[in-house]
Amino acid sequence: MAVEAVGDYNPKELEEKILRYWRQEKVMEESLKPRGGKRFSFLEGPPTANAPPALHHVEMRTFKDVVNRFQYMQGKSVPRKAGWDCHGLPVEVQVEKELQLKNKKDILDYGLDKFIEKCRTSVFSHIKEWDSLTDRMAYWVDLKDPYITMDNNYIESIWWSLKKLFDEGLLYEGYRVVPLCTRCGTPLSSHEVAQGYKTVKEDTIIVSFPVKDKEFSILAWTTTPWTLLSNVALAVKKGVKYAKILYQGEKYVLAKELAVKRFPDADILEEMDGADLVGMEYVPLFNHFIGKLDKPCWKIISGDFVTTEDGTGVVHIAPAFGEDDYNVGVENNLPMVNPIDLDGKFTKEVPELAGIFAKDADPKIIALLEERGSVVAKYPYEHEYPYCWRCKTPLLYYSMKSWFIKVSDHVNDLMNQNKKITWYPATIGEGRFGNWLENARDWSLSRNRFWGTPLPIWECECGQKKAIGSRKELIENSKGKTAEDIDLHRPYVDEVVLRCSCGKDMKRAEYVIDCWYDSGAAPFAQYHYPFENQKLFNESFPYDYISEATDQTRGWFYTLLVESTLLFGKPAYTSCVVGGLLLDDNGEKMSKSNKNIIDPWSLFETVGADAVRLQMCSTAPWNTKRFGTESMKESVLPVLRTLWNCYSFTVRYMILDGFDPIKHGIKDCTLSVEDMWILSAADATVEKAKKAYDIHDYHHVVSIVSNYIVEDLSRWYIKLIRDRLWLEDNDGKINPSKKAAYMTLANVFERICTILAPIAPFISDEIYLNLLKKDVKSIHLSLWPKETKVDERLNTGMNIVRAIFEAGSNCRQEANIKLRYPIAKVQISGDANVCAAVSDLEEIIAKQLNAKRVEYVNEIPGISYTAVPDYRIIGPKYGKTANQVANAIKENPEKAKRIKDTGLSAEINGLEITSDMISEIRLVVEKDHAASGFTVDSSAGVVLIDTKRTKELVDESLARDIIRHIQEERKRKNLEELQLITVELSKTSEVESMMHTYAETIKKEVRASEITLLQGLKAGKNLTFEGKDIQYQVIV
């Protein structure tokens, strides 16, 4: 295979080319095959394809793909089954909008069977966009064999699990207060409710209830005036001090603490304990239900849930509309008053409000109470209120029958299983998710809807209930003939009637289940477990890895854990990476209202998928991230372009020499010290990257490899070897030093591509396929290096040399001596590591600093240090003796420098001095010494350059200046590297003198066949050297 030429970095063109290659060679399909190594099990969180994918989907898919690719490169088999979530309210709501249906009645009038078929079609209405995005961003999952939650086999597995819960007493029917969406006509689960809270500001009121046979009224505060029609009791707390106050001529009772806060001008007439109020009766605010209730009501009761944080310390109780209220009602045998229908509207039992939605009735109720003088105070209150997470309707807490999974009895089990999960970050598992588990409630499972997994419970009017766990069981128990291939959806399954032992018919309870149960069943239902694939399931479960956004702590992460704990006594997953929020370039949350949503396709077209993936991984997955073309231009695009330029540079020279690295081996090369260093640094980078990948620190991988590409490879190694690539070949054989450089570069790119492959799959494979491809047809099918050879001494030494170079360059800048002008010598003084680096790498120091000689000396004369104490640290720590400590630091600068350099503490004059007590160490150069050189103190010790200029140095400097200007002229003329030129120079005494020594050097460097000196040359360009103008001309 010959190395092919490459142009400028064009991500769109490059990535489309690689996509074509992957498809042609079926590379992705190859990666899905068992590898023979340990199995790494990944569970895909299923999206719904009834809307186009967005940028946040790209974010989470990037993290998933990174992990799967990395694990595959570790030699593991990594099955990657795609999944589609199909059921639930989101789909129904969308279809209702399309069909212009407003409620459940409209759906039934339209035809349930037709509606179900519309839902079935709708769930894949955007499947092409999802498939295209999956392909374009290189998210490798098996789309040809996905799990689909609406498939019969999937539903059958869910039925098996629900029957198991039913048989174990964990699935039960109960009458409880549940959050109800009146538009959708169904209750929601607590984890669904958690996703729909909004901050609202509403009028709240303090109302007075006259106490019977007393001269005072008791005050209660409510944020839901519509529930006052259903009030049957008032709750106070025993042990809390209550006060009777005189306010605007009326006597009221409320908690003393809140009386002072709410009515500061009122007179306190009497104090009492909450227990003194218990048992008193009061007059209700409305008379609609007086004489119609069969249980005692309108009395004051005791409640431990009463607080004095807000309101009046008195809670109005309406058992039909609150979980605490309901429980209190049961405990105190209170009646249930519910004048609200399932549409959320008042019934005819309250004629003046009939047909009005409960929340909308608040203003009218407040007005009615104000007319009667029952409102003592009214003020706006900002609080969180739950809304339907899909249709955005305000929820009502409503007492109704529903089916529940008994979660509350297993909180400890959930907490214990959570401890077996490694969370990234750990704070999610310990905090947000752990706290949610601690307060887990029974799961409201049933939904009064249509498109979903039907609840497999059949009921008889005799009271018997039967759970069905399979199609076979359904057919065997059905009264009539049921087809084996029956669609397990409504309305078809509703038509199946079972035989009851009492002889009557059993009909299915017409509920579907919470669609979150569907996705939570993915670990087993995707394999149609337990009906088949039991071995496959057991090999995968618990899954090694899942990853979704942070909002899934109360969604998928939760339902997975609940189901796996109750069904299998294990967590569903052992590690979870949580994705953070995406912000735009300005740090604003992306939203339609902000008009800052970024279309992922626009990014793929402009900056490419590699850049998008790299940017996603440049910040910790769980952190919020700024995202946009501007942020990518500043961060990841320069890295990709630098890598490409290094690759392009290498390819260009290999093609010039007809060199194919595949036909050679690095073991046959005699490596220079810089070759050995860049390979050692590459292996060190591989080791660090693997450790970072192992703990999902993708951002550290990006940082590590970016630094290696930009600093080690581009700014240093290529700089060191550039001259070697111009060495002439001997007798048709490539120059050994050049060959060593080429093979070193090839091995370096192999390491870089290995590290980058999981994150930036396109550019990694492009470089691999052009430079490195042998038996394996893609970098993504290769293995991570098993052996690395890191030379710590060499790595440390080269880091010191680079620090010496930086210090020497600063010296030159201060002395106004350009780097291309040679200097006589460099002197370096430092510790043992500096001494070793100078000894090992003297030639590199000399060449890079353009110095004739490099000397290591124990001490450079004429310099000293001053130590500056940090009074901000010393003052608070030592108080009155702070000056004594500061003086000890100032009087012992050498000791202070050692403390500062090492970061350790030591005694000075009997005082313990730490490095943070020293603000800085300043280098002082004696005046006479500064005249002959410039000194810089750096992490590599003290560096001194000799600034004295001799004629030989001046001649060489002039030659270097001429070479640089001619090379720039070659670039301007777009000349090929090997194209010969003729050069004309103005004939001056300085040029003539220099040419005696450097004529051949200049010809070789600039590829000139001839250099002519002309007296009074006027044409061409001008360069200025030490104040004198010199003309030159390049002739092609």
What does this structure look like?
By secondary structure, the chain is α+β, with helices and mostly antiparallel strands. Among the domains are: 197-386, Isoleucyl-tRNA Synthetase, domain 2 (Alpha-Beta Complex); 411-441 and 529-579, no CATH class; 625-780, Isoleucyl-tRNA Synthetase, Domain 1; 796-946, no CATH class; 951-1035, hypothetical protein PF0899 fold (2-Layer Sandwich). It is built from 37 helices and 38 strands. The strands form twelve sheets. Strands 10-8-9-6-5-13 form a six-stranded mixed sheet. Strands 4-3-14-16 form a four-stranded antiparallel sheet. The protein has a four-stranded antiparallel sheet with strand order 19-18-21-20. Helix 29 (792-815) packs across helix 30 (832-840), helix 32 (871-878) packs across helix 33 and helix 36 crosses helix 37. The longest helix is centred in the C-terminal third of the chain and has 24 residues, at 698-721. It starts with 10 loop residues before the first helix and ends with a strand.
